[in-house]
Amino acid sequence: MDSNTKLDKSVLWTVRTAVEIGDDYNLPKAVGVNAIVAKQKHKEFSNQGLKVIYYPYFVAKVSGVLDISSLNGIVLEYCIGDLWNLVTYDKPQGRYIKPLSTDCSGIGYFNRLFMYAKHVHSKMKVFVEDGLHIYLEWSIAHKCNLKGNPVGKPYIVFYEFRVID
């Protein structure tokens, strides 16, 4: 983000830091901040030599994981609300499993998620062929206004991508 970057001042923002290799736990971040603070945090984190990612703060309607592997194909597991309900509180709402060769055309968010999974697989299949899993975390979410209330149409957001054993 440079000084000319304009952030929508009517919504809240999240500013996260990332590493390409290594431990990404406990990295600094600013969550649910206004545009002015988001720009300040971006500059602060960049000056520390960190890679910075920013996006509109969101409230999740539905969240989940996509696990892409040669063993199981594409596994989509989901929960209502925030992903913490699935990964921390173990409250899954459902699971779908489709082979990698499946036709994922159709309408609806889950079909779109399966299409994204197939696209990721096509770009990263060497990992799957080596027996590894591609793991993506996602939400169907809304941006939030300055009071933290959902606004606008829901959209799919991915916020974690890992290759794991």
Largest sheet: 5 strands, antiparallel
Q: What is the helix/strand order?
A: EEHEEEHEHEE
Overall pLDDT confidence: 92
The main sheet orders its strands as 6-5-4-7-8
What is the CATH topology descriptor of the largest domain? Answer: D-amino Acid Aminotransferase, Chain A, domain 1
| Percent of residues in beta strands | 35-45%
The number of distinct β-strands equals: 8
Secondary-structure content class? alpha+beta
Specify the helix fraction band: 10-25%
Unreliable runs: none
Number of domains: 2
Shape: globular
Backbone CA Rg: 17 Å
What's the CATH architecture name of the largest domain?
A: 2-Layer Sandwich
Number of helices: 3
The CATH first-level class of the largest domain comes to Alpha Beta
Distance between the termini: 34 Å
Task: Identify the notable features of this structure and list them briefly.
single chain; alpha+beta; D-amino Acid Aminotransferase, Chain A, domain 1; 2 domains; five-stranded antiparallel beta sheet; 8 strands; 42% strand; globular
Helices, strands, pairings?
Blueprint: E1 13-18, E2 29-33, H1 35-47, E3 51-56, E4 58-69, E5 73-80, H2 84-87, E6 94-98, H3 109-129, E7 133-144, E8 150-164
Antiparallel strand pairs: 1-2, 1-3, 4-5, 4-7, 5-6, 7-8
Fold and architecture overview:
There is one protein chain. The protein is an alpha+beta fold and 165 residues long. It is built from 3 helices and 8 strands. It has helices at residues 35-47, 84-87, 109-129, and strands at 13-18, 29-33, 51-56, 58-69, 73-80, 94-98, 133-144, 150-164. A 5-stranded antiparallel β-sheet has the order 6-5-4-7-8. It has a 3-stranded antiparallel β-sheet with strand order 2-1-3, with helices on one face. The protein is globular and about 45 Å long. The mean pLDDT is 92.
